[in-house]
């Protein structure tokens, strides 16, 4: 299994790397289009602000590599948001893999960022969730999110309801950090790695 973590320049790669290592896989960290295209599974991690993240991705020449990727790819946190078409955060044009705009959370008085443990309030039956309890908690850190849409696999409530897991074709995204979400997060990563996405 060839597992690649894209070095976006805007993520803590070590925590994701160690989460994958704990599952028995040795990930490569790379910006090389050939390495990414020939992987079996690809992770797109990200933290920080959307505009800054896109500057880093553009500077590394990764935009077309990500868009054209034919391998299953999991965007994490900001990585998920970057799969959308644009973000209110810095009025940034993002990768456009999913035709969804990312907007600021309307937290209705709750503190931002939404930071800490929360559940998936609703989810569809999907192989990503195999073996994960309906009331499992995941770790979030974000102030912007994708709204609920036809691409939503799971949603979460923090003031408003937002998409916490999305999917389109070979692209998947989690707004939470599965690598920081204990057993449930580890199982989701394992599912992503081991399900046959045909």
CATH architectural label? 3-Layer(aba) Sandwich
SSE order in H/E notation? EHEHEHHEHEEEEEEEEEEH
Number of strands: 14
Count structural domains: 1
Give the count of helical stretches. 6
Tell me the CATH superfamily. Class I glutamine amidotransferase (GATase) domain
SS-derived structural category: alpha/beta
Q: Spans of 5+ residues with little confidence (pLDDT < 50)?
A: none
Mean pLDDT: 95
Radius of gyration: 15 Å
- The third-level CATH topology is Rossmann fold
Report the biggest beta sheet as strand number plus sense, adding barrel if it closes.
8 strands, mixed
Taken as a percent bin, the fraction of beta residues is 25-35%
Short description:
With 198 residues, the protein is of the alpha/beta class. It has 6 helices and 14 strands.
Can you describe what's shown?
With 198 residues, the protein is an alpha/beta fold. The protein has one domain: Class I glutamine amidotransferase (GATase) domain (Rossmann fold), CATH 3.40.50.880. Helices cover 24% and strands 31% of the residues. It is built from six helices and 14 strands. The strands form three sheets. Strands 2-1-3-4-14-13-12-9 form an eight-stranded mixed beta sheet. The chain is globular and about 45 Å long. The model has no long low-confidence stretch (mean pLDDT 95).
